[in-house]
Design brief:
4-stranded mixed β-sheet, alpha/beta, 6-stranded parallel β-sheet, 2 domains, 6 helices
Length: about 240
C-alpha cells in the first residue's frame, strides 16, 4: 500500500518538477500561484459591466433562481417582505450578523421577525450577502466568516441573497482577483462557496429534484443599476494569462 502511495506522490512531484525538500516544493507551488493563469473565458461574458449584470440575472434565472432588482439598498427590506408574501412564507428570518445587512432599514417592515446568527433545523428562510456574482454562469460567490455563517446558505429551504450590482464580474477568475485584493496573502476566508441556483439532484430516477442537498429556493435581491464599465471589466480577447 505504501509503495502505491509513494508512486502516486512521486508522479505528482514529477508533474510539479519538484523532487527536493519541502522548501523547494513550496517554492514551486508559490511560483505557479504567482503566474495568475486564467482559464478559457466564454465570449458571452466579455461585455460592458452593465451587460454583465444583465447576463448574470439571465443566467441565474435560467438555473431556477429568482431575481428582484432594486435601485438602492434601502429597498432591500421591502423586496424581502414582498418575496416572503409572494411565496406564502412566514415573516420570520434568520439573518447573517453582517453590519451591512444590519444597517438596512428593516424597521420599514415591522412585521418581520429577525434573528441573527447560524441557521438551525427550524429556520425556513435565511438572508445573507454575497461577495460577488459571476456573469458567465449566474453564480454567487459566498465567503464564510463571523459575519457570514455558512449554515445560512445550506440549511434553510429558502435562501435570500443580497448582491450589489457593482460586485458582479464577468468570470470566475475576476471574482478570485477580488478576494485576493480584499484579503491579501495569508488572510483568505476559511470557506469559499460558489452557488448556482437552488440545490438540485437527478439521482432519483433521473428526475430533477430541488432542495435535496440545500435550499429549495434561491432568491437574489440585486441592488443598484450599474452604469457603464466597472474596474476590471473584461472586453475583447482576454484568454491569455492574467
Amino acid at each position: 500500500m505504501s509503495n502505491a502511495r509513494d508512486q502516486v506522490l512521486g508522479a505528482v512531484r514529477r508533474a510539479l518538477k519538484s523532487n527536493g525538500a519541502a522548501a523547494e516544493r513550496e517554492a514551486v507551488v508559490a511560483e505557479r500561484l504567482s503566474r495568475g493563469t486564467r482559464g478559457p473565458q466564454p465570449a458571452r461574458a466579455q461585455l460592458s459591466h452593465r451587460d454583465q449584470v444583465a447576463l448574470f440575472q439571465e443566467m441565474a434565472e435560467e438555473v431556477a433562481a429568482t431575481v428582484a432588482r432594486v435601485a438602492s439598498a434601502d429597498e432591500v427590506p421591502d423586496a424581502v417582505a414582498a418575496y416572503l408574501k409572494g411565496e406564502n412564507l412566514p415573516a420570520k428570518l434568520r439573518m447573517a450578523p453582517d453590519a451591512e445587512l444590519d444597517a438596512l432599514p428593516w424597521e420599514s417592515q415591522p412585521l418581520l421577525q429577525i434573528e441573527r446568527g447560524r441557521a438551525g433545523a427550524a429556520d425556513e428562510v435565511s438572508v445573507t450577502r454575497a461577495f460577488a456574482g459571476v456573469a458567465e454562469t449566474g453564480s454567487l460567490m459566498l465567503l464564510s466568516g463571523p459575519e457570514a455563517p455558512t449554515t445560512l446558505n445550506f440549511l434553510p429551504e429558502n435562501n435570500v441573497v443580497v448582491l450589489d450590482a457593482s460586485a458582479v464580474v464577468g468570470f470566475y477568475e475576476d471574482a478570485w482577483d477580488q478576494v485576493r485584493a480584499r484579503y491579501g496573502d495569508g488572510g483568505m476566508p476559511r470557506t469559499v462557496n460558489f452557488i448556482t441556483g437552488p440545490s438540485r439532484t437527478a439521482d432519483i430516477e433521473q428526475t430533477i429534484q430541488l432542495g435535496a442537498h440545500g435550499p429549495r429556493r434561491l432568491h437574489i435581491v440585486l441592488v443598484g443599476d450599474s452604469q457603464g464599465d466597472a474596474p476590471g471589466d473584461v472586453q475583447g480577447d482576454t484568454k491569455g494569462d492574467g
